[in-house]
Design a protein that fits this description.
363 residues; alpha/beta; twelve-stranded mixed sheet; 12 strands
């Protein structure tokens, strides 16, 4: 896949946040265009503004294009989308929210038409993007509505992969959104993505409890015994190697998470708080869909926007992950076309080798 130079779309996110800063810092390293062909969707005005602000990005130059179809290898391609006149680093404004959505939709169009292998999204502000025709609480929900599949938010790094049953909802509503059927569906999705996108032959999955001490036998809550454990039993009967439910503090503090290929958390902070502590430069991956979308695992960081302080490592890792996940997905799809093809070829090769062997005196 590296020889084919994957086309990776990159959206600007909120132009008043750190999106452009981490994009420019990441692509200022010329080696990035050696491993993939970047296609940025964003405001040329914002790009020029942040280039002047951040010295180490002076060498970055753009190749203006209309769509990813025109993207050139070895160039930093830029599709003008989400233009903004008043750039105010650190401020959440409706104009910046509109610009973020327009850039996102332009990238989505090219992704739907097969012009991109994956999309990496810079963070936007969840409040300013809201409008009559955009009512999503995050990128994950948006991509779930635009593409086929059962979406799952997964935070991944070299040491940890955490999927979520519930995502961006109030804590007071978490218990009511957890069901035996939903957990089983999410375990199927997590297993499949670990196999096809991460190349794990048969993943082991740890399922986290909802209540402290995993409910303490019902003293601290009944969800474990009435919902979560039965879902794990159902999954195991389907051949999914699911284990638990585990108390969150014990699983992470005791290092038990290292025994598993993936972890299914019940809610946002239960999974993300330990993940970000153990993997500060991790990646957000929207799994379970027909397309690949990743992002840095942080927000707009308005408090440091425009100051040149933003660390681009999570964006860099998100691009690496988009390339790796795309390569694994392509390989999986090729294998699925004829899963016996490779075995048949190896068997034929062995037969030919046997025929070519010299005859012994006994033969």
């Amino acid at each position: 896949m590296s020889e084919q130079r994957l086309k990776i779309g990159i959206t600007q996110g909120d132009p008043n946040g750190i999106g452009w800063e981490i994009i420019l810092k990441t692509l200022s390293d010329s080696r990035m265009t050696e491993i993939m062909t970047p296609v940025i969707y964003g405001s040329p005005t914002a790009a020029a503004h942040y280039k002047k602000l951040i010295r180490e990005t002076d060498t970055v130059s753009f190749n203006p294009i209309v769509s990813a179809h025109e993207a050139r290898r070895g160039k930093i391609n830029l599709v003008a989308a989400g233009e903004i006149d008043a750039i105010e680093p650190g401020k959440a404004t409706p104009e910046a929210g509109r610009a973020a959505v327009e850039a996102l939709r332009a990238a989505t169009r090219d992704l739907k038409e097969g012009m991109l292998d994956a999309v990496v999204t810079a963070p936007f502000d969840k409040q300013t993007v809201q409008s009559d025709d955009f009512r999503f609480t995050g990128h994950t929900e948006y991509f779930a509505a635009e593409f086929e599949g059962d979406s799952m938010m997964i935070l991944c790094s070299e040491v940890l992969r955490v999927g979520l049953v519930t995502k961006h909802i109030p804590v007071s509503e978490i218990a009511s959104h957890i069901s035996r059927e939903e957990i089983l569906k999410d375990l199927r999705t997590l297993r499949m993505t670990l196999k096809q996108d991460f190349g794990i032959v048969e993943p082991r999955i740890a399922v986290m409890a909802l209540n402290p001490h995993a409910g303490d036998g019902g003293l601290l809550g009944k969800e474990e015994e009435e919902i979560i454990r039965p879902a794990i039993v159902d999954a195991f009967e389907e051949g999914i190697l699911a284990f638990g439910p585990f108390a969150a503090d014990g699983l992470f503090a005791g290092g038990g998470y290292t025994k598993y290929d993936g972890i299914l958390a019940m809610y946002h902070d239960q999974g993300l708080a330990p993940f970000k502590s153990l993997s500060p430069d991790g990646v957000n991956f929207t799994a379970g869909l027909s397309v690949i979308r990743t992002s840095p695992d942080h927000g707009t960081a308005f408090d440091i926007a425009g100051e040149g302080k933003a660390d681009p490592q999570s964006m860099r890792n998100a691009i690496y992950a988009a390339c790796d996940l795309s390569a694994h997905r392509h390989a999986w799809m090729e294998w699925k076309k004829n899963p016996l093809q490779h075995a048949e070829r190896e068997h034929s090769r062995r037969d030919m080798s046997a025929r070519d062997l010299p005859l012994t005196d006994k033969e």
